[in-house]
Amino acid sequence: MDRNAAYNPETGNFARGGSASAYNPNTGSSADVQHTSTGNVYGGNSAGETTATVNNAKTGQTNTYGAAHNGNNVYAGSDGNVYRNDGSGWQENTGSGWHSTGSSANTSDLDRFSQARSYGGDRYNSFSSRGFYGGGGGGGGFRRFSR
């Protein structure tokens, strides 16, 4: 496992990355995962990507999977597909781009996930606007002093 990060308190910009590998000596199968993200803690914007490569030694097949996010608007559905809300409805990424899910898709889980993120974001913003960062709900943070 490897992790690294950089943060500039003047600008609020950050970058972080990490990777991990696993190997099963009994089967010879292995997996590698990498994640990177960048953003700004003051502006609240972020973007990143995660890539996983899995090697099945029994079949000789290697598969690579990836997911990316821009901000906080990408969701993994319980069906294993990737979704986003473009403001007028849910879209699914089919590998060749974003396409409307249509009225037949069951998006109630996605709606709940989106509402939970929005609620969490509101709580964080309320807490951080008082000059604190870190754990909410009674502790774990530190005071941000202005100059």
Main features:
disordered C terminus, five-stranded antiparallel β-sheet, flat, 147 residues, four-stranded antiparallel β-sheet, mainly beta, 2 domains
Mean pLDDT across residues: 76
The tally of domains stands at 2
Please trace the helix and strand order, writing H or E for each element. Answer: EEEEEEEEEHEE
Kindly state the number of beta strands: 11
Question: How many individual helices?
Answer: 1
Mind explaining what this structure looks like?
This protein is mainly beta. The chain has 2 domains: 1-71; 72-134, no CATH class. It is built from 1 helix and 11 strands; from the N terminus they run βββββββββαββ. Residues 133-147 have low confidence and may be disordered.
Write the layout of secondary structure elements.
Layout: E1 2-7, E2 13-23, E3 30-40, E4 46-56, E5 61-70, E6 75-76, E7 82-85, E8 90-93, E9 98-100, H1 108-128, E10 132-134, E11 141-143
Antiparallel strand pairs: 1-2, 2-3, 3-4, 4-5, 6-7, 7-8, 8-9, 10-11
In short:
It contains one helix and eleven strands; from the N terminus they run βββββββββαββ. By secondary structure, it is mainly beta.
